[in-house]
Amino acid sequence: MQMLTKFESKSNRVKGIAFHPKRPWILASLHNGSIQLWDYRMGTLLERFDEHDGPVRGIAFHPTQPLFVSGGDDYKIKVWNYKTRRCLFTLSGHLDYVRTVFFHPEHPWIISASDDQTIRIWNWQSRSCIAILTGHNHYVMCAQFHPKNDLVVSASMDQTVRVWDISGLRKKNQAPTAMTFEDPFSRQNPQSDLFGSTDVMVKYVLEGHDHGVNWASFHPTLPLIVSAGDDRQVKLWRMSETKAWEVDSCRGHFNNVSSAIFHPRHELMLSDGEDKTIRVWDMAKRTAIATFRRDHDRFWTLTAHPELNLFAAGHDNGLIVFKLERERPAHQVHQNQLYYIKDKILHVHDLASSADQEILSVRKLGSQYVNPRTLSYNPAERAVLVTSSHDGGMYELYPLPKNLSGSLKEPADESKRGTGHSALFIARNRFAVLDTVNQQIQIRDLTNTVTKSFKTPAPTTEIFYAGANSLLLSTAASIILYDIQQRRTISELPVGSVKYVVWSQDMSMVALLNKHTITLADKNLKQLCQIHETIRIKSGTWDDSGVFIYCTLNHIKYALSQGDNGIIRTLEQPVYLTRIKGKTLFILDRDGNSRSITIDPTEYRFKLALVKKQYEEVLHIIRNSNLVGQAIIGYLQKKGYPEIALHFVKDHQTRFELALECGNLDIALETAQALDKTESWKKLGTEALRQGNYKMVEMAYQRTKDYDALSFLYLTSGNETNLRQMLKIAELRGDPMSRFQNALYLGDYQERTRLLKDVDQLPLAYLTAKSRGLTEEAENILAAAGKSEEDIKLPTATTSSTDLPTPPKPVIQLEDPNWPLLTVSKSFFEGAFAKEHQQNGAINSVAAPSFGYDDGDIEEASGAWGDDDNDDFGIPGISSGKTNGGGDLLDLDGGAENALGGDEEGGGWDLDDDIKADLDAEISQAAAQETAEFVAPTPGTSESQVWTQNSPLAADHIASGSFESAMQALNRQVGIVNFEPLKPYFLSIYQASRVSVSPLASSPALSFCLRRNPEESNSRASLPAIVYDFQNIVSTQLQAGYKAFSSGRLAAAETQFKSILRSILFTVVTNQADADEVAQLIDICREYIVGLTLEQNRRTLTSSEPKRALEMAAYFTHCQLQTPHLQLALRQASKQAFKLKNFSTASQFSRRLLELAPPKAVADEARQIQSVCERNLNDEIELNYDQYNPFAVCSLTFEPIYKGSPKMDCPFCHASYKPENEGKLCTVCQVAQIGANATGLRVMI
């Protein structure tokens, strides 16, 4: 039996705990006066309640209502509503600490036990005390209701356990019935029975404990009571109708026992105490069968979940939620049959017919309290292999009976049993057994005889089936595909602690499951994707289409091999998936029942069809399902299918954004008119301008009243008529700047002169008139100013007025005002949707273009502004009676209207609705004509974006400009947290992956991506150029580091090796041999950096701390350096030791130096030192150094960490540190976090 910890919290001392009956919640009352509400499934603190003054000792959930009750040392009982998160009311009456509180399972009662030697029963609906139970003569430590009968049990420090009969109280408080003869007498004095009443009577007083009793509780179904006391005993009592007696005592605790409860499902008792243990007792034998210890925490309380197989215990530093047995039924699916074990009996379940049959009993395997762990079925020999975790692991081979009728057979062949952590069939007549103690895999035949055995290539925790003659070996850091016959590793994937492996039916794909990660890979262990879950992953199965269906504690989900995943449905309780067929999912629940549930596979089939580009299937799903939701819309946008997302959306704002994204101007116009927001019109104008739809741009500018943009639009298109109209509008608006701008665009110097006169800029007006040859106008200006020409000094004109610059006049007026559009075909989906709309007759002139035209009507409708001289803006006083404008472009006030005569036809630009509709229809018709056969192109995926999709490497993500995903990848792979030193590398990679070419001086530069696979013609398969070439690093940078080391430039050498180490993060290689060399280079850099740091620190300490300096010199000699460099380290260390008269140490260094065959001069010096030292092999200074015990040097404290001592590593450079440095920044690479979880650096795709 083992304790399976499901949740653990850290807090102040926990004095009381309570499970919620339905939700995954647990309440903890703390000694500091706080109450915590935890979600033990998510591992999160949901709420804190802080109203008690002093420790809170009692806590309980109501079985059905959203209530809980608490009692504390402030003598108060508080009832809380966890939905409103507040205290509803307080019950006062106790005169001392309240020890426990519990709700009655049926009646609205609360029972409380107190140090005032009383037990009180309260009605929480009337908020009053309905009974006080007196009789104990010391603190009452615990009082509880019986789950079914009208009984109460209490435990007290007076060394007794009392059982109380509350049937009279129940009758008194139940709903009134017809009056009987006794009723008037019994109701005369309802208060007379508060003390010593007949409502509650003592039924039994149980005496047997030698010290105070801390806890007593009823068995849920049997007439039994368990109690725990300060005499270190757990006592079992039995009751009858007339008496109660002690059955036996359980001894084993060596301090006070705090709590004791019955196991709700087995004949077991659990207890915990101040001896820091939880003990499990056999109820029949009254012996301890399991003990679970904590090092420093005393236990104070213990409870069982009312429905699930869960327990919780509170201790000095928090609480722990645990199970005593695995609830996962051992099972295996073969074709349409599910073999599983329930209640130690092997069943076979036909998934097609739902027929279920018991085959044989496996009760003799392992302990009766430990369920079988795994089951492996051999269809060829009709045999099963069952394993159990009892006694370190055991297995047994069972041949299945041929005749399934009659009583269950229970094989008893001891020769078919053996020890081993895991056992599974690997061939028709062979099975493999893993011995984790000796790290050995044995291959046995069906007689349980070993045919071969071999050592595992790495410390293995689990083995899994991987096809004929192959195994998957799970290690702490990776999963290994191992060939049994050739005894070699085929491939390895860095996925640690894999608990379950699920193969697809054709064995082409595999899912590797650990506690929080799913890794999908192909049959050669090439990773396809990895999915992280915050909730524990329980099981999974493959769909026929290649989608992996899996479940967590509270969801059934799906995962596509490309990495997309989502939720199919929620779960109330965890289940184990066995097989999926269409919409039917076959499962096993925790009670071992095989059943099926219906799921909706539409979402993942839709995504799978999109990924596989099966567009007909996509259309079929769209037309025949109710696939909706923001998640689907966001997914379609992300994957580049906004035209499909548009089909699902009804919200105008979302439709507008999607229409712009896929370039559908017709729907964008329709939704912009519905929204009628300035921001929407601006966006529509920008997109229409990009596509060259002149009319829609014009309409958008009119709606936003962007007069300057309109004027410039008319200038660039040569629409002089409309420019003239804009000039009139500016005059009506009283905007002199806009008026001057339009006059300038038109080249109308007479209008400019008039404007300058109107704004009292007479000098400028005179200059304009004079320079343009308006002599009479110039004289009038002079006269008005009271000046003569003699008073004015003008610069000498070098050109005539006819040579002054003027805006060019349009040579040809285009019949179609829209600019040329690119002619691209409609996408598959747009064409399909348009055809569908046509068939349904659901097309209108604005929402979507009509594809049946009359050419004459279109030419008639194209008469926009500027096509003839009679068109105008509908301005009063200049209108010819025909209005054709942009709706609500201008809202003139009444004064301006009256000033120009107040024509009824014009009304500024506030045109009649029917005119506005005509304009909309005209623009829509024009747009429809252009898009009948073609649509504007949507931007494709840039080549740099393709890089992020093709590669998981950080360097390729940086080259594409996706710095954030690159940083996430580096953090996930090697725990990088400090990116500041890596900034130059990021920038250089980004800049080196593209080149800019300037075609013309007036044109913007063209940018091109540089590929490392230029022979690949398909841009979708391209990858960026390699900036940090591995061979260049080895041949150039590494040699420079060696050279700096040899020449004694230690700081420069350290900088060089750190630069190499960081460059490795962005190195890309193409084969496994180079990848292995990259790992070796990381080790080389680490050793040199550690050695250089030691030497530089030693040089600063030589005079001040000679002992510490000599230790560092000694550690330096254990760095894995090149032989010439190691000679330097040994030579330096031997000299230092000799100077400090550590002759024994100096002799050892000299001997090691001579073993490396140094140059003659160095060898002679070493021999001299050795000969002197051998005369007196003593050390003056005792060093923290043992050369015979392998060690690593802590890179922060520079102290040895000897083999077998705990240590933490840097996930990138693998530098060693003492455990207390976990979470700090690595001092070697200066970028990774010590002890961070990481999957390992990837340098190869």
UniProtKB/TrEMBL annotation:
Subcellular location: Cytoplasm; Golgi apparatus membrane
Keyword field: Cytoplasm, ER-Golgi transport, Golgi apparatus, Membrane, Protein transport, Repeat, Transport, WD repeat
Residue span(s) of domain COPA/B second beta-propeller: 353-589
Domain Coatomer alpha subunit C-terminal: 826-1244
Recorded GO MF terms: structural molecule activity
Domain of life of the source: Eukaryota
Name the UniProt record assigns to this protein: Coatomer subunit alpha
Organism: Circinella minor
